[in-house]
Every structure is written in C-alpha cells, then in structure tokens.
Design brief:
The chain is built from two helices and ten strands, in the order E-E-E-E-E-E-E-E-E-E-H-H. It has helices spanning about 135-145, 145-150, and strands at about 10-15, 25-30, 35-40, 50-55, 60-65, 70-75, 75-80, 85-90, 95-100, 105-110. It has a seven-stranded mixed β-sheet with strand order 3-2-1-4-5-6-7, covered by helices on one side. The protein has a three-stranded antiparallel β-sheet with strand order 8-9-10. It is globular, with a radius of gyration of 16 Å. About 25% of the residues are buried.
C-alpha cells in the first residue's frame, strides 16, 4: 500500500516488544530492517523509544510516533492514524480480523490468531484487559481514543 501522507519520517526508531518484556527492536524506516536486542544488550540507557512492535503468527505490527504523528504498520501496509481512520478488530481470539477504513472506505484487513495463551500463572495483575494480550486490539483502542493518542505521542 502506497504511503499517502506527507510527513518527514525519522530513519531509525527504537521499539519495545509488545510480546516480550526483555526484547527491544531497532527499526530502520528507510530499509525496513529490524534488529532485535535485549534490554541488557543496550549500553546507552538513555535511548528514547518511539513505539512498539508485535509479531503474531506471520504478521508483523508496528505502532510508533514520528514527528508528532502516530503511524501503524501491519505487514507492508502503512497508515497514518488520524481522525479519518478507523481500525477495528472483530472475531474470537483464534480468528481475529483487523480492518482499516479511511473516510469509511475499506483500505485493508489482516487476519491473525491469538493461539498462544499469554496469561501468566500466578499473575498478580488480575485487572489486565484483553488488549494487554492482543496488539491489534490495543492499536484499535488507541485509534479510537484521542487522549490515549496524546499519551502515546508524549503530549499528555
């Protein structure tokens, strides 16, 4: 999908792993190269992180801030999250469909499955919500909430 917005993109970004607390990634926007590190690998503890990355099955999802804007990448599809964009997730965990609409028109959809039970035995966070284990749902919820977008962008 061709990029349809005019934002100067930062070349290198650091992303937290949504799926694994100890993993982080360096993402080169120009080359699309992603390099995995552990947090203990990082010598520079002052690195500023721009977003998150999640691998669900064969799908790669990235959500990051860049020059004051929020960008979502689902596989090869890039979308600027703005007032015209609706990101919706439907289906049961074993058969999810993430759909993206812009101005009410279908752009693309991604099918994925949350086959692994990501609940943790003895988890002391019984207040965890479904979006804590489903990156697609997490992105959908952020896309529909201006306050959460501001928080993600560091504006609140």
């Amino acid at each position: 999908m061709e990029r349809t917005w005019d934002i100067k993109m930062k070349a290198l970004m650091w992303l937290y792993s949504f799926d694994n607390f100890v993993e982080v990634y360096r993402y080169d926007y120009k080359t699309k190269v992603i390099v995995k590190f552990t947090k203990s690998d990082l010598v520079d503890k002052t690195i500023e992180f721009d977003g998150m990355l999640s691998k669900i099955g064969d799908n790669l999802f990235l959500l990051f801030k860049n020059n004051g804007s929020l960008i979502f990448i689902a596989n090869e599809n890039e979308i600027l999250i703005d007032d015209d964009v609706l990101i919706n997730v439907t289906g049961k965990p074993s058969d999810r469909v993430l759909t993206i609409l812009k101005k009410g028109k279908f752009l693309f959809e991604v099918h994925y499955s949350l086959v692994d039970d990501k609940s943790i035995e003895g988890d002391l966070t019984p207040f965890a919500e479904e979006e804590d284990f489903d990156f697609g749902l997490f992105v959908s919820n952020i896309s529909m909430d201006k306050r959460r977008q501001k928080v993600f962008l560091g504006k609140e």
